[in-house]
Structure formats: structure tokens, C-alpha cells
From TrEMBL:
UniProt cross-references to PANTHER family, sorted A to Z: 3-OXO-DELTA(4,5)-STEROID 5-BETA-REDUCTASE (PTHR32487:SF0)
Top-level taxon in the UniProt lineage: Eukaryota
Positions of the PRISE-like Rossmann-fold domain: 4-275
Any Pfam family: PRISE
InterPro entries in the record: NAD(P)-bd_dom_sf (IPR036291), PRISE-like_Rossmann-fold (IPR055222)
Organism annotation: Cladophialophora yegresii CBS 114405
Gene3D superfamilies recorded: NAD(P)-binding Rossmann-like Domain
SUPFAM superfamilies: NAD(P)-binding Rossmann-fold domains
Name of the molecule in the record: PRISE-like Rossmann-fold domain-containing protein
Length: 416
């Protein structure tokens, strides 16, 4: 009966992984690690340890000695830094030190598979329009003009560590898209930020409208999302499926969705109306200080141009851009918005930190980019993965869970 160890167990992907393994009978012991917050799971199968993966390796070794050998590792720890070079250094070092500690303890001799969670930055979705659909064999964006990418660093560290042990243990890496899940005060949290925006915006609006803050291009674009629960099912599958060893996998819900389809449902959930003209030419939203940022050139698509029969010169200087008709970070500072949040906070007994830690910049990017992000699931499906999650259901259920946990105002009681 295998033992699992999950790093980043309090984060959005780690927390869902812990819940998934708890549901499944085959795991006898689940070791959860995080840096600061205590694990929120209370179950006899769980042993929690607080370890700073940036800290001293000797400390890490002595803590890991207490938890004992493990069969499967799920590495969901992540530390954000806006400087891509520093993010590479930090996240690369955390992984390297952790594997080093397992090696020092002799635990790698016992290990069966190491699962690493990365994401779609693998394809440069943060740098501009990618080649679509994104597939795992797409060339890595490395060297001039591309910025450092900590995913590449982590994948190299992991595969080199397995090779150093003659591949006696194997690895798998996942690339989720924007994750829909539950976590508190983490770095990228789409559902919490969206739920805060929807509840406060629709309550401030006299007509109870819910305006889409991003741009029309984004509203009309196609995207995939990743439910944290589905991703957790996937990492369990990737750990146990013999064919998944030493492989990388996209992980998305399995439907292709758009805000034109999701936003009206979100509005309805919050008892709000979709504005008659969501994207007025004249500045209805000018008071909210719209913002526009051109992304650097070239976009990732340029790297693939020749191979797919497009003229690289034509694409090279094509700016992708981010446009918000309502700049959410600025909107969140408006006096009437802050006042409404405080009213809702007091009415529902919420924590001020939820508002203070809302990941506005992250969702501004997700709603403001002027391009689609569509990902292929063919590789995993070809190996027998059958998981699927309807994206709207994932949003609706996650928002409900966040309400039940006292993180978000209850949509059904907003104006009662
Ligand atoms: N969130 C998304 O929408 C999304 C989308 C695509 C890809 N991804 C990728 O998924 C991976 C996992 O990210 P996530 O979003 O699940 O992370 P997250 O929700 O921000 O959680 C980060 C976790 O890492 C732990 N951690 C941070 N620094 C640590 C340290 N020094 N020592 C030990 N633990 C530390 C945190 O512990 P504490 O709580 O104790 O600080 C927390 O449990 C990342 O590669 C990320 O890029 C995320």
C-alpha cells in the first residue's frame, strides 16, 4: 500500500491532490508539506510537516527523516516572483534541494514516481499568442529573445535526478491551464478573485449589471480551463499509470469554452444582468480607468511560424496585447467599491485578507489578453486517460465551496 508525499499541500493544486488521495482507498499514508499554513486536512492518514524548501538542507533532512520513506511524490510547491530570472532561481532551488534531501536520506531508492506540477507557461502563454492547439512536443522557447522559464529548469533538474539513479524511479510533469480551485492567500486564484469581483461589482451597480472587465477579443476567444479536482485525479492517474512514466502532459477539463458562454451564467449566478452592450465604443467605463499594455514581440507563435508554413517576418512584430475596459486593480481601490466590500465582509463575516490578497493582476491578464489559449489532451487520452470536467460546473461548484468556507460572500444572499 503506497505512501504519498505532497509538497505545497495548502496551495490550489496541492490541496486538491490531498483531497483526491484521501478519497482513494489505496493510499495508506499521506504526508503533506507546506511552508507556513498548517494543513487544513484532518484525517488519521495524514502526517503534516512544515518545511521551508528554500531553507537549510540539513533542516529539511531532519524533518523528512521524521516522515519516513515515500513511494510517490507530488511536487505542488510554488513561490511566485515577478522577475522570471529570480522565479527560475527560487523554484529551481526548491526542487533541487528537496530532491537532494531525499537522496541524502536514501529515500530515492524507495521512490517509484515523482510528479511535478508546471503549467501552460511551458508554451509561453504569458508572452503572447501561442501556436494552437498546444501539444507536448512543441519546441521549448529558450535562448534569445525568450525570458527564463522556471518550468524548463525544474523539468531538467527532475529528469537529470532520475537519470542519475539509472531511471530506477520515473517522473511525470503536468501542464494545467488556469486552475479553478480552492485555496487561501495563494499566488494565482481565478475563482476567488472572480467571485469577489462579481459580488461587489453587481452590488455596487445600480441596475445590478455585471460588466466584463477585460476586452471583447478575450470575450470572443476560446480557452480551456483546469479544475483543481480534475487535475488531482490526473496526477493520481499519472503516478500509477505505467505508460505515464517520464512523460509530460497537458491537463485541461476536456471542453473548449469562452467567456461569451460563461459570463452570462456567472451574471445569473450573482443575480445580475449582462449589460445591453458589454463593450460600448464610447467610454461608459471611463471612470474605471481602462488600461492597455502591448506585450513584447515576438509572440511565441513566431517561433513555430516556419514549421507551420507562416511567414516569420509577418508575425515577428505582431504585438499581442492586454486590454481592460475596467482595470480591476484600480477599480478595487475606488471608495464605493471598498465600502461595498466592507459591507459584504461584515454581513458574511469574511476575512479582510481575502480582499487584500485578491489576485487582481492575475485575473486581469486572463480576461484581458487578446488571444485564445487552446490545448490538446490527445496524448493523455491516447494512454487511456478518460477524465472530463464541464468548465461552468467547475466554476459554479468552486464558488459554492468558497462560499461555504466563508471565503466569498454567498451569491444567493447578496442583496437580501
Ligand atoms: N494557480 C493557477 O491557476 C496555476 C495555473 C497553471 C499552472 N500553475 C502552476 O502550478 C504549480 C503549483 O502552483 P499552485 O498555484 O498550486 O501554488 P499555490 O496555490 O500558490 O501554492 C503554493 C504552495 O507552495 C508552498 N510553498 C511556497 N513556498 C514554499 C517554501 N519556501 N517552502 C515550502 N513550501 C512552499 C505554499 O505553502 P504555504 O501555504 O505554507 O505558503 C503553498 O502550499 C506552479 O508551477 C504554478 O505555476 C498554477
Amino acid at each position: 500500500m503506497p505512501t504519498a508525499l505532497i509538497t505545497g499541500a495548502t496551495g490550489i493544486t496541492g490541496r486538491a491532490t490531498v483531497q483526491q488521495l484521501l478519497k482513494s482507498d489505496q493510499w495508506t499514508k499521506i504526508i503533506t508539506l507546506s511552508r507556513s499554513q498548517k494543513s487544513s486536512h484532518d484525517d488519521p492518514k495524514i502526517q503534516h510537516a512544515t518545511i521551508d524548501l528554500q531553507g537549510d538542507t540539513k533542516d529539511m533532512v531532519s524533518h523528512l527523516k521524521e516522515v519516513g520513506e515515500v513511494d510517490y511524490v507530488f511536487f505542488c510547491a510554488y513561490l511566485a516572483d515577478p522577475d522570471e530570472g529570480k522565479a527560475l532561481e527560487i523554484n529551481g532551488t526548491m526542487l533541487k534541494n528537496f530532491i537532494g534531501a531525499l537522496r541524502d536520506l536514501g529515500y530515492l531508492k524507495h521512490l517509484k514516481r515523482f510528479i511535478l506540477v508546471n503549467g501552460l507557461k511551458q508554451y509561453g502563454v504569458h508572452l503572447g499568442v501561442p501556436k494552437m492547439p498546444m501539444v507536448e512536443t512543441d519546441t521549448w522557447l529558450e535562448g534569445n529573445p525568450w525570458p527564463p522559464n522556471f518550468y524548463y529548469e525544474q523539468q531538467r533538474i527532475l529528469s537529470a535526478a532520475a537519470a542519475a539513479d539509472a531511471n530506477l524511479w520515473t517522473w511525470a510533469v503536468t501542464y494545467p491551464q488556469d486552475v479553478i480551485g480552492v485555496a487561501q492567500a495563494n499566488f494565482m486564484n481565478l475563482a476567488t478573485a472572480l467571485g469577489l469581483y462579481a459580488s461587489v461589482y453587481s452590488s455596487v451597480s445600480e441596475d445590478h449589471e455585471l460588466a466584463f472587465p477585460g476586452c471583447k477579443e478575450n470575450y470572443m476567444a476560446f480557452n480551456n480551463w483546469t479544475s483543481a479536482k480534475l487535475h488531482a485525479e490526473f496526477v493520481e492517474w499519472a503516478a500509477l499509470e505505467p505508460k505515464a512514466g517520464n512523460q509530460t502532459f497537458n491537463v485541461v477539463n476536456g471542453d473548449t469554452e469562452s467567456w461569451q458562454n460563461l459570463w452570462p451564467r456567472l451574471a445569473e449566478r450573482y443575480g445580475a444582468k449582462v449589460p445591453k452592450n458589454m463593450f460600448p465604443k464610447e467610454g461608459k467605463y471611463k471612470d474605471f480607468e481602462s488600461s492597455h499594455v502591448d506585450m513584447p514581440t515576438p509572440p511565441p507563435l513566431w517561433y513555430h511560424a516556419e514549421k507551420i508554413g507562416l511567414d516569420p517576418e509577418e508575425i515577428k512584430n505582431d504585438h499581442s496585447w492586454l486590454h481592460q475596459q475596467i482595470d480591476i486593480a484600480k477599480w478595487a481601490e475606488r471608495p464605493e467599491v471598498v465600502k461595498k466590500w466592507e459591507e459584504l465582509r461584515d454581513k458574511f463575516g469574511l476575512d479582510q485578507k481575502t480582499w487584500d490578497n485578491a489576485t487582481w493582476v492575475f485575473i486581469s491578464f486572463l480576461l484581458g489578453r487578446n488571444y485564445s489559449c487552446v490545448t490538446s489532451m490527445s496524448k493523455a487520452r491516447g494512454m487511456g486517460w478518460k477524465g472530463y470536467q464541464d468548465t461552468w460546473t467547475a466554476f459554479d461548484e468552486t464558488l459554492t465551496e468558497l462560499e461555504e468556507q466563508g471565503i466569498l460572500p454567498k451569491a444567493s444572499e447578496l442583496r437580501k
